[in-house]
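Task card 7
Instruction: Convert sequence to structure tokens.
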Amino acid sequence: MSNVIISTDKLCKTFSSGGLQQHVLKNLDIKIFEGDFTVIMGSSGAGKSTLLYALSGMDKPTLGSIQFFDQEIAKLSNDKLAVFRRLNCGFVFQQMFLLDNMSILDNIIIGGLLISNNRKAIMSKAKELLAQVGLTETIWRKFPTQLSGGEAQRAAIVRALINQPKVVFADEPTGSLNSAAGKAALDVLTKVNNEGQSVIMVTHDLKSARRGNRILYMRDGVIHGFCDLGKYVSGDKERHDRLQAFLTEMGW
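Output:
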């Protein structure tokens, strides 16, 4: 049995708007396991991204606790949460958020320099990761606006990995990419997961969801079901059918 890396106890998140309260997360008790590729699915407004941001310390819950390895993070101050995220979390978003006035290599290195002054080691690690995701030295020197969507997203994934985070959090990472670029980004996430990296991804896309080995389905702020698909194998039609059957059962 894999180790539990993140667990929640009665996790709640409420937003207030116009004097009304919207309960987005409702008493969630979940466990995330080390080495898993966990996918969070559900209809729009189900609370998927809110849950992802809470688990990663990007947002604080209204009530409840979040145990991230040996640390309770729900009640950390904003400053301590920033340090915690820097040391433990990598983030991949639908929008890449690369700095347009820096080269791709510098975009990645700057993240590493936030936790280490060893520029030589960070440079070496950045080049190693860029090569692993198929980005050549010619691309390292380019600026984000000179890259295709797929190239930019692969660079963003490298940036998420530069500090060797315990967990990579991805929020709709293929949402703005075409089919080929989306597959390339998913291939990178699958590769690092197969090498032992824990990944948690929010998606509404069936092709993306198939990459996960554990699917959590949300509806109206609660988890309605789980599906265990096992490790991803390309071309596994049975995997597609099992996921489709699960989603149909969930009302997707």
